[in-house]
Every structure is written in C-alpha cells, then in structure tokens.
Design goal:
76% helix; 5 helices
Length: 148
Amino acid sequence: MNDPGVVAAPTSGRTGHTHRLRGLAGTGLIAALAATVATTLAAALAQAVGVDFQIPDGGETIPLSGFAVVTGFFSVMGIAIAAALLRWSAHPAQRFVWTAVSLTAISLIPPLLSGANTATITALLVLHLVPATVMIPALARSLRARTD
C-alpha cells in the first residue's frame, strides 16, 4: 500500500464539514457584497428619479448608507441561516429557499404599513426584492453543490 497515487480519506467528517461551510461562507459573502452594491445603486437610481424615501412616522429620510447597512446585515443573517441548514437539515437548499422566500414576503409588510407616499412604498418593495434575487439563488446553489 505504498502507492503514491492513493490518497487516504480524512479520518474525520469534521474536515469535510469545515470545507463545505467555508465554501458556503465565501459564496455568501461575495453574494452579500453584490446584493449590497445592487441595492444601494437601485436606491440611488430611485432617488435620482425623485423618490424621497421619507417615512412619515419619524419624518426622516432613509439615507443611502442605511440601505447598504441593512442589506449587508440581513444578507449575513441569510448566510447564517444557510450555514445552520447545511449543518442540521437533510435538505438544506430546499429548506433555505422556503425560509428565505417566506422571510422576504414578511419583509414586504412594513413598507406597506409605513404610510409613505406611493413612490416610496413601491421603491422600498423593489429594494426588498433586489437583494433577495441575488442572495437566495446564490446560497441555494451553493447549498446544493455542497450536499450533492
């Protein structure tokens, strides 16, 4: 058994799990960066065409940096959910898509209840969907690739 072409498999499943988790995290962080940039650019474009992003409750305008911070935070939360499902679910990609789509749908409720003008509400709804269209497919693909 001194054949140099034979490579022993890792003795622990831990190495495989760590490798899968790192791959998921890497993919997730790249997707989170893309989602953050896309959402911030979409918000800047909406502002350029006249959307004020003023929320009547507090009377303040949502700054562009606010979109970036919130998108980044919730994208990282999505990565954490995907990692947990990779670890504890027999079908992580399916469960992730179901969970992420459900949470995205729930996230559409606050803009509708905000009392903002129609343009702001519409823009906020679109801006909730932009990062979802980046993060959900990227993480689902990564989960499928790591469990097949």
